[in-house]
């Protein structure tokens, strides 16, 4: 069966967010998911949704996009508010049932791997990968996640634009953000964007039907 990627996450420090802030974070996640869906036809297999108040799930039909999507979701949240962030566990595996209206009602190996990985996550990292022979991607995710922890709001805003598969030029980014091109270049360099793009491109370049990650 085809390998899918399930991203399961929960908002960091959600109990400290007021109702309006929590709603804003949820709406930002929903907007980010819609933008990810536009990266490739039928990439998002069902409607992403929140459950248990602060937890969410996203199902991707092309697992190669899993790292880029995880980085993008964290960037979108941090770009929206310095108090917003999320942990993300990526499960790589087969899917037995897809509920088109609510991702969290779907089931299969990828969902179990993702959910169990999130439950077992500690506080040391915010992105991990679980699945058969996923060690290399997990290492990349953890290293990049530790760098993303230090993104400022302005850096995250630039990173959001740079992570899109059809990313605009830095001149176009500057115009959209209302800053100078030099400011964009400095923000992206400080955010270590090259490491994130290389990790995402490595993941996307794998031969997923026959993938062996280590």
Description:
This protein is of the alpha+beta class and 214 residues long. The protein has one domain (4-210): Nucleotide cyclase, GGDEF domain (Alpha-Beta Plaits), CATH 3.30.70. Helix content is 48%, strand content 14%. The chain has 8 helices and 5 strands; from the N terminus they run βαββαβαβααααα. A 5-stranded mixed β-sheet has the order 2-3-1-4-5. A hairpin with a 3-residue loop joins strand 2 and strand 3 (55-60). The longest helix is centred in the N-terminal third of the chain and has 19 residues, at 19-37. It comes from Brevundimonas mediterranea. Residues 169-186 form the HTH cro/C1-type domain. This is HTH cro/C1-type domain-containing protein.
Number of strands: 5
The helical percent reads 40-55%
Provide the domain count. 1
Give the ordered list of helices and strands: EHEEHEHEHHHHH
> What is the CATH topology descriptor?
Alpha-Beta Plaits
Q: Which CATH class is shown? A: Alpha Beta
State the low-pLDDT regions, or none: 210-214
What is Rg? 16 Å
How far from one another are the termini? 21 Å
Output the CATH homologous superfamily: Nucleotide cyclase, GGDEF domain
Query: What structural class is derived from the secondary structure elements?
Result: alpha+beta
Helix count, DSSP H or I runs of 4 or more residues: 8
């Amino acid at each position: 069966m085809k390998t899918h990627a399930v991203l399961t996450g929960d908002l960091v420090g959600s109990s400290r967010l007021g109702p309006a802030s929590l709603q804003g974070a949820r709406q930002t996640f929903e907007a980010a998911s819609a933008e990810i869906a536009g990266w490739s036809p039928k990439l998002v297999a069902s409607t992403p949704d929140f459950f248990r108040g602060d937890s969410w799930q996203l199902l991707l039909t092309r697992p190669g996009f899993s790292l880029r999507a995880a980085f993008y979701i964290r960037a979108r949240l941090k770009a929206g508010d310095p108090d917003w962030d999320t942990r993300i566990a990526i499960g790589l595996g087969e899917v037995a049932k897809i509920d088109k209206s609510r991702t969290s009602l779907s089931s299969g190996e990828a969902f179990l791997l993702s959910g169990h990985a999130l439950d077992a996550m500690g506080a040391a990292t915010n992105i991990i990968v679980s699945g058969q022979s996923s060690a290399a991607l997990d290492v990349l995710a953890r290293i990049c996640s530790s760098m993303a922890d230090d993104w400022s709001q302005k850096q995250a805003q630039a990173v959001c634009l740079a992570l899109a598969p059809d990313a605009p030029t830095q001149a176009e980014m500057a115009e959209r953000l209302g800053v100078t091109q030099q400011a964009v270049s400095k923000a992206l360099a400080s955010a270590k964007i090259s490491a994130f793009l290389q990790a995402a491109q490595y993941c996307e370049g794998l031969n997923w039907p026959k993938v062996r990650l280590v």
